[in-house]
UniProtKB/TrEMBL annotation:
<dbReference type="InterPro" id="IPR002487">
    <property type="entry name" value="TF_Kbox"/>
</dbReference>
<feature type="signal peptide">
    <location>
        <begin position="1"/>
        <end position="22"/>
    </location>
</feature>
<dbReference type="Pfam" id="PF01486">
    <property type="entry name" value="K-box"/>
</dbReference>
<keyword id="KW-0732">Signal</keyword>
<dbReference type="GO" id="GO:0005634">
    <property type="term" value="C:nucleus"/>
</dbReference>
<dbReference type="GO" id="GO:0003700">
    <property type="term" value="F:DNA-binding transcription factor activity"/>
</dbReference>
<protein>
    <recommendedName>
        <fullName>K-box domain-containing protein</fullName>
    </recommendedName>
</protein>
<feature type="domain" description="K-box">
    <location>
        <begin position="32"/>
        <end position="124"/>
    </location>
</feature>
Amino acid sequence: MRSLFFAMLRLLLSSSLPKASSSNIPPTLAWKGYLNAMIAIYIQTNNLLAEKFHRMNFMGEDLDSLSLKELQSLEHQLDAAIKSIRSRKNQAMFESISALQKKDKALQDHNNSLLKKIKEREKKTGQQEGQLIQCSNSSSVLLPQYCVTSSRDGFVERVGGENGSAPPSLAEPNSLLPAWMLRPTTNE
């Protein structure tokens, strides 16, 4: 980097003097402006080179020219960078785990509420099935009196008949009816 400084200094000294323009600017002010521009260029170039060497050192390149103190400093910087990366990674993982736990709890609550609704519906359907199981008191000339029962699968059977006869066979019409085909009878 010292060689760069001397190269810039040589360039500055070897360049021709800035000429005063027709706006009556004194030569010293022109030199100051020129010198400030050259210093800005030098600082910018120096910063770029320092950043390049710093990146190269971080990548493990060109370490031969570094002293023991510089190597230890570089090692310390690398350790600090690794700790910072690990802490950010751990923080992101903990946030992700926390969000997933919240989602899990919400899903469990939703599942529990759905189970309650299912149980309530089962209770209601059980009560409705209990109401459907009734014997009709009206007699028909063509058909004997039967007691209507419903099964879990939604079919309704006629059981019994006149004089305690056995249930009708499956071949007999209307021996098994789906629940939706039966009309509830009301005795008013």
